[in-house]
Design brief:
The complex is a heterodimer of chains A (440) and B (179).
Chain A lengths: L2 E2 L8 E4 L26 E4 L4 E2 L1 H16 L4 E3 L18 H6 L4 E10 L2 E10 L4 E2 L4 E6 L3 H17 L7 E9 L6 E8 L6 E2 L7 E6 L5 E6 L6 E6 L4 E4 L8 E6 L5 E8 L2 E8 L5 E5 L5 E6 L5 E6 L6 E6 L6 E2 L6 E7 L5 E8 L2 E8 L6 E6 L1 E7 L5 E7 L7 E7 L6 E2 L5 E10 L2
Parallel strand pairs in A: 3-5, 3-6, 4-6
Antiparallel strand pairs in A: 1-2, 2-9, 6-7, 7-8, 7-9, 10-11, 10-33, 11-12, 13-14, 14-15, 15-16, 17-18, 18-19, 19-20, 21-22, 22-23, 23-24, 25-26, 26-27, 27-28, 29-30, 30-31, 31-32
Helix pairs in contact in A: 1-3
Chain B lengths: L7 H13 L38 H9 L1 E3 L9 H16 L3 E8 L6 H21 L7 E7 L10 H7 L1 E8 L5
Parallel strand pairs in B: 2-3
Antiparallel strand pairs in B: 1-4, 2-4
Classes of the chains: A mainly beta (440), B alpha+beta (179).
Chain lengths: 440, 179
């Protein structure tokens, strides 16, 4: 059975030896790492060398290992001894040897390459139970898309061992920053979640800010100064073509975001010095005010059902977070603490809102339940801001800026438990991450 | 540094101003990011106005002698007495040199989120615009723009620099040329 998963640009297909539907979520596996707020001991996983063509097999194995260990939830126990490594993909697993190494799970895989196509088969084993966990699967892809095939395998393993939706086969939009701090040059790019395969969306000719993905991952909305005046634009990623959404030179427009169904764009609109939140029909451009007050109302983010937005307002005197329904009514304040609260992002799971909190001269990334309860601080530094959710709602990527005249922004990610804070490995400064959807 | 909350009176004034002030008619000239080529040598500041008014009829004179920049307190958009004195001079110059238009660029310090600072810069630019118009400058000659925290003047990360970055800069140029 062959199931075509991707219809654009590349052909990556999956064949299940008995394909589970949906393929990602085998819920009945015996081996499970429980994701709780308590301290979690990483699950020991063995990834012996993948069989097949040594070069590409090793590269795919390393990406799978990097995806899994990068979560902080898995520990790579190493390749094992020659004796413990199966001689072929079909050979029985030497469970005793792997138990001796402390491995709890084991991945066996084989990569075959025929000209420009690769095929990757893998199986996941529960070492202590001495049996396969879930079905074996096969992914076919263009050789150029080998990293995606690796991410798909890592996604399968993550989903089977955590019971959560995965997120490795996803992309992140961001802003590259070059040049001195007082004349920064900014450029929008799109990359794999791990910083690879960068595609540039804009050149460096005009100031651009804060791209945000559409839920289908095919478009970005962002703020551009290309007319000399901040206006919002939409970018089609596949064709790298953009067009303005607003062109009113008497009114600034910024901080746009798509609704989950892609039909609406909420954004900040300034008139006469006052900033409100407006709603635009993405197809027709028709607009109406959504939140209006004499205070600053900005940074809207939609709930996953598209019925509400969370936004930042200083109507109480200092910036706090509020939730408003799309059909009007008085916004409900959800943060009441000290400091300034801003740049909220509603989790794709719907349960939490990540935001930036400024207390004194320190910035934090924090989360809060949608009813305002359970505020939890995840990070703190001189300047952390602009959180964006992984598609499974378990990881937040954000901008961390170092202080001083040579200060630079860098993208970091952190688990919603506050653990596993890590910088993204990029060889340039970057800000304003927007984490796109899990790719099909 | 603790950020003082905006006083209710200031908020009320701001709200009234925002409500009472009709949106200025759009000015047709394009505005170019004056900082885009800031590292590349000479910065075009507009043509000299024919010499009839001499050295005073230049953007250089306005920037250097009249004073093109006013500063704000942290998180504030209210005009200090010092700012009002500078803006009074700006208004006199603009009323004398009627062939010039102005773009007021609002800025914010690096603390604060990107989105909030864009809005705060707009609030500051608007406060300057309203003051200039109240002093008799034609509302169609002054438009506003915010760079938020994207274009700091001073780059260190302490109050000495932040105080310089909480600013509104009035950029003048001969009508019809852009800035």
């Amino acid at each position: 059975m062959m199931l075509r998963l991707l219809t654009f640009a590349l052909s990556l297909t999956v064949a299940g030896i008995a394909l589970p539907v949906p393929p990602a979520l085998a819920q009945d596996g015996p081996l499970r790492i429980e994701l709780t707020d308590g301290v979690t001991e990483p699950l020991a996983i063995a990834l012996p060398p993948f069989h097949g063509d040594a070069g590409i097999a090793a590269r795919i194995r390393d990406v799978v290992a990097a995806d899994l260990t990068g979560t902080g939830l898995f520990r790579d126990v190493g390749p094992g001894s020659a004796a413990s490594q199966p001689a072929s993909f079909s050979e029985a697993i030497a469970y005793e040897d792997w138990r001796a190494l402390g491995a709890q799970a084991l991945v066996s895989a084989e990569v075959t390459q025929a000209e420009e196509a690769i095929s990757v088969k893998f199986r996941l084993f529960d070492v202590y139970a001495g049996e396969a966990q879930g079905d074996g699967m096969q992914f076919d892809a263009r050789a150029a898309d080998w990293r995606r095939a690796a991410h798909k395998i890592a996604d399968q393993i993550y989903a089977r061992l955590t019971g959560e939706q995965p997120y490795f086969d996803s992309r992140v939009a961001f802003v590259q920053e070059t040049g001195p701090k007082d004349a920064r040059i900014k450029r929008i790019g799109v990359m794999d979640y791990d910083g690879q395969n960068i595609l540039w969306m804009t050149d460096s000719s005009s100031l651009v800010l804060a791209p945000h993905f559409s839920r289908d991952g095919q478009r970005l909305v962002y703020t551009s100064f290309d007319s000399g005046f901040p206006q919002i634009r939409v970018m089609d990623i596949a064709t790298v073509s953009s067009r303005p959404l607003t062109q009113d030179t008497g009114s600034m427009a910024f901080s746009p975001r798509f609704s989950p169904d892609g039909r609406w764009i909420a954004y900040s609109r300034e008139q006469g010095g006052n900033t409100d939140i407006w709603l635009m029909d993405a197809a027709t451009g028709a607009q109406r005010p959504l939140v209006q007050s004499p205070a600053i109302d900005t940074a809207p983010s939609f709930s996953p059902d598209g019925q509400r937005i969370v936004f930042e307002s200083d109507r109480s005197g200092s910036p706090q977070l509020y939730i408003a329904g799309l059909e009007g009514g008085e916004p409900v304040r959800i943060t009441f603490g000290d400091g300034r609260h801003g740049s909220p992002a509603w989790s794709p799971k719907g349960d939490l809102i990540a935001f930036t909190r400024q207390v004194g001269n320190r910035f934090q990334i924090a989360t809060v339940a949608t009813d305002g309860s359970n505020e939890k601080t995840l990070t703190e530094s001189f300047l952390d801001e602009s959180p964006s959710w992984a598609p499974n709602g378990r990881v937040v990527m954000f901008t961390r800026v170092t202080p001083g005249g040579n200060g630079q922004p860098q993208l970091h990610s952190v688990d919603i438990t506050g653990r596993n804070m890590r910088p993204l490995n990029l060889d340039f400064a970057a800000s304003d991450p927007s984490w796109g959807p899990l790719m099909p | 540094m603790s950020l003082p909350a905006r006083s209710p009176a200031a908020l009320l004034l701001l709200g009234l101003a925002a409500c009472a002030q009709p949106a200025p008619p759009p000015v047709q000239t394009a505005v170019i990011d004056p900082y885009a080529n800031a590292t590349g040598g000479a910065l075009y500041q507009g043509d000299l106005a024919g010499g009839t008014l001499g050295i005073e009829a230049t953007a250089e004179y306005f920037n250097g002698t009249v004073g093109n920049t006013v500063l704000f307190a942290a998180d504030q958009a209210t005009l200090t007495a010092e700012a009002r004195a500078i803006l009074t001079r700006q208004a006199e110059w603009l009323k004398t040199h009627t062939t010039f238009n102005a773009v007021v660029q609002g800025h914010a310090e690096e603390t604060g989120t990107r989105e909030y600072n864009l809005a705060l810069g707009a609030r500051r630019a608007s406060a300057v615009q309203e003051y200039l118009v109240a002093q008799g400058v034609g509302s169609g000659r002054v438009r506003t723009l915010s760079f938020g925290k994207e274009r700091p003047l001073a780059v260190c990360s302490d109050e000495a620099c932040w105080a310089q970055n909480r600013r509104a800069v009035t950029v003048v140029s001969p009508a019809g040329t852009g800035s």
